[in-house]
Amino acid sequence: MPVSADGLLLLNKEICNDGLTHDGEERAMTDVANYSYRGAGAMVQLQQQHLRSFFDVWQRARELGVAMPTTEDPDCASLEALLSHVLAAARGYMMWMCKVLRLGNPEIEKAPTAGEVEGKAGEYLEHLISRWDGPLVGVEEEAFFSPAHSAPWGVETSVDAMLEHAVMHAIRHQFQLESLLKQAENCR
Asked: pLDDT tens-digit profile of 138-177?
């Protein structure tokens, strides 16, 4: 597989996005072999893949005019709010992991707000994905499991569990949008 100058694997969009049809543009993906703990590298690669896949589904929902159901949750009040939430959460997960592992600031810019996300999402997503690759490369496996740390929502968790949570967060919201897309198609 082709590799970029910074060691990222270059994969075709079709491969990166779970069979969705795309134009074949190449995208950078993490090379798991660079990681001391390959489990972390795999989770980083999955995060990259599923953030892109979520964004593709989000774009399809926007193009079809899908509306979010009425809710008191501001993160799900609109398609734009949901996209901003997913991007901000992905930033937050890596910021938290770097903090508890004492790795320093990964220099991930703040996510665009719901009011500005539509015009900035694609560029921000690539920035976010590029900043996710790297901070955890040299961290040994033991540090991912012990000790447990207090997550921002107050539960004790390992860094490995936070990695899994981060990946599932994008998947869960993609599922939410896919369900709304199916409902919209059934109403036509």
From this structure: 999 999 999 999 899 999 999 999 999 999 999 999 999 9
Count the Cβ atoms, other than its own, within 10 Å of residue 101: 15
Which residue type sits at 135? P
The pairing of strands 149-150 and 156-157 is antiparallel
Structure tokens at 173: 């919201």
- What are the domain boundaries of the chain? 33-186
CB 110 within 8 A of CB 88: yes
DSSP-based helix, strand, coil % in the chain, nearest 5: 55, 5, 35
Nearest C-alpha neighbor of 163 from the set 188, 186, 187, 141: 141
CATH superfamily of 33-186: dinb family like domain (1.20.120.450)
Q: Which residues contact 17 (CB under 8 A, 6 or more apart)?
A: 49, 52, 53, 56
Q: What is the pTM of this model?
A: 0.84
Decide if 87 contacts 126 (C-beta within 8 A).
no
Q: What is the pLDDT of residues 29-50, one digit of tens each?
A: 678 888 999 999 999 999 999 9
Tell me the C-alpha distance between 15 and 49, whole Å.
9
